[in-house]
Amino acid sequence: MADCPVARSVDAVGDWWSLLIVRDAFDGSRRFGEFQRSLGVAKNILSARLKALTDNGILELAPAGAHNEYVLTAKGEALFPVIVALRQWGEAFSFAPGEPHSKLLDRRNGKPLKPLEIHAADGRRLTPADTEVHKLS
Amino acid sequence: MADCPVARSVDAVGDWWSLLIVRDAFDGSRRFGEFQRSLGVAKNILSARLKALTDNGILELAPAGAHNEYVLTAKGEALFPVIVALRQWGEAFSFAPGEPHSKLLDRRNGKPLKPLEIHAADGRRLTPADTEVHKLS
After folding, report:
1. Residue of A3, A4, A6 to mutate when probing chain B, most B C-beta within 10 A
2. How far apart, in whole angstroms, are the C-alpha atoms of residue B12 and residue A87?
3. Which end of chain B, N or C, is less packed with Cβ atoms under 10 Å?
């Protein structure tokens, strides 16, 4: 197993594509059909990805009438900063000026969120150059 | 093209695996051989991933003596919150208590960074439930 937490996270989520399932779960999708409509993928592929996310403790199955629903676990909810970071990066670099895109908004006032910032333990704002990785070997 | 910035980011990075190249670039890797030693992958696969990251404006080639070096562009540097978010999630959920792992530290004092937080434009701390996605259609 990798000793780098980034690598383990990559393993745990499974693949990039699965992150869009997690995004949809944050957006309120719970049923197989909802994920399928949003993602437009083959049922067998979606089933496999949902199973992997469930096996890895990111989603859990909740009985709901005749259907099962998929809900984020605490571990899954903790992926929120990953989704927000990818969203803000996409907004900054993958759209032309004025090109419309979906938006993540503050429910209280409908405003976009504050851009993510990296801070030191004492609150100083950090750039990548202010940090260093300590590897085990 | 997707109208969701998360989906466009996923497209732009290419795949999960490519994110480990970006991580290594933040950690100081610049040469093909450095990425290869760190990642332990076949040369042709690494070449294709480096080319895709360069084509997508995340890395750029910089001549350095007899070799080319790969350096993060501004767009690539802006992936730092994504890497930090994945690292912190991995630290929280993918290691046993006390299990050693690589660490991202503040150069000034050697301390771990502050955990990422999601804030509203006015500074309030937000949970996923405090937010909502506005889709275009």
Report:
1. A6
2. 12
3. C
Structure confidence by residue, pLDDT tens digits, A23-68: 999 999 999 999 999 998 899 999 999 999 999 999 999 988 888 8
Residue A47, domain member (yes or no): yes
Per the DSSP assignment, residues forming a β-bridge with B70 are: B61
Angle at A39 between CA A109 and CA A108, to 5 degrees: 10
- Nearest Cα of chain A lies from the Cα of B66 at a distance, in angstroms, of 26
- A23, A94, A111 member nearest B121 (Cβ): A111
Looking at the partner chain, which of B89, B104, B121 has a beta carbon nearest the beta carbon of A106? B121
The predicted model scores a pTM of 0.94
Is B23 among the domain residues?
A: yes
Tally A–B CB contacts below 8 A.
Answer: 248
> Which of B101, B134, B136 has its CB closest to that of A3?
B101
B111, closest residue in chain A (CA to CA): A121
Which range of residues forms the domain containing residue B46?
5-77
Which CATH number does the domain housing residue A25 bear?
1.10.10.10
Question: For residue B137, is pLDDT > 80?
Answer: no
CB B57 within 8 A of CB B21: no
ipTM, two decimals, is 0.94
| Residue bearing the bigger pLDDT, B66 or A71 | A71
Query: Residue A41's closest CA among A17, A68, A67?
Result: A17
Is A116 a residue whose pLDDT tops 70?
A: yes
Domain count, chain B: 1
